[in-house]
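Consider this record:
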Amino acid sequence: MEFIDLKSQYQAARALIDQRIHDVLDHGQYIMGPEVGELEQRLARFTGARECITVSSGTEALIIALMALGIGADDEVITTPFSFIATAEAIVLVGARPVFVDVDATTCNIDPTLIEEKITARTRAILPVSLFGQPADMEEINAIATRHGLVVIEDAAQSFGASYRGKRSCNLSTIGCTSFFPSKPLGCYGDGGAIFTGDPELARAMREIRVHGQSRRYVHTRIGVGGRMDTLQCAVVLAKLERFEWELEQRTRLAARYDALLSGRLGRVSRAPDRHSAFAQYTVIVNERERVQAELMAAGIPTAVHYPVPIHRQPAYVHLATDPCPVACDLAEHVLSVPMGAYMSADQIDEVAFSLLRAARVELPGEPADALC
């Protein structure tokens, strides 16, 4: 069993993907070819955002967004410690300081009730992460930002396709940033990402920054980076978009099957009723995680831990931590992600769920406890 089955996805969409790739090979415009603009238009329509700017990765999306806002030295950005390192890395790379706010124990997303106490005169932005595919409480976060004159950047690297109160992730704040890393809900075959905004001036700035700060060829009006998403990767995402709505429906259906089998028996990351997850991961809460992982591996079931060490405990970032963030630390010791993807079968979901319950020493539905020994 694959943790994320990209091979089956490719076989299902092979004709679409191959044709899109061959189109690029035929016209030969590998950088900023026509597929780049086409993808940006399609993604903007999908999210409802006014502007979309494709970039070379989700990390670059965050960096470019921060640069466009002029965030840098002596500035602070409030964010979560329970995320992939790129969230804080982007803040540090522009010269600013990440200020970590602990997370909600049920959703694993930043706890909005703890944000305001961390706001100082140096705070410029709030950068929540829509972890595991579920948006953070963006309405409350936006309200806090408005009260304090701050900007909100959604790190939606895991949540493209998700929704919050009827609006798509990436269109929930001033700026939304996502990733098309191959394992994401909508992934390419390399690195790629996109930035979304409703502000045309910010969009213009970010478009210039991604091409070395150029307003036109060889005229550099601002400091920039080499942050373009290449045409071939845009072509792959365009092909995958044709099946994406169906894949989201499948992920939802399969997650519901996991829920039915695990509910009341094993802890899971909760999903708020006002939002719909893209299920980048299906994550449970277990004790004795190493033993559970080993038993699942022996049964042929791969797992992953997102994330075993919170960012504020990482060696390169520990000097920046001012809050122990105990919830994030506790979650880091107990979260476990199991296989999830649109091309899994119901039988595979059952196999994973029952194997997980056995490994966790939990009584299976209709199975006496002594059968687990």
Summary: Residues 244-372 form a domain with the Aspartate Aminotransferase, domain 1 fold (CATH 3.90.1150.10).
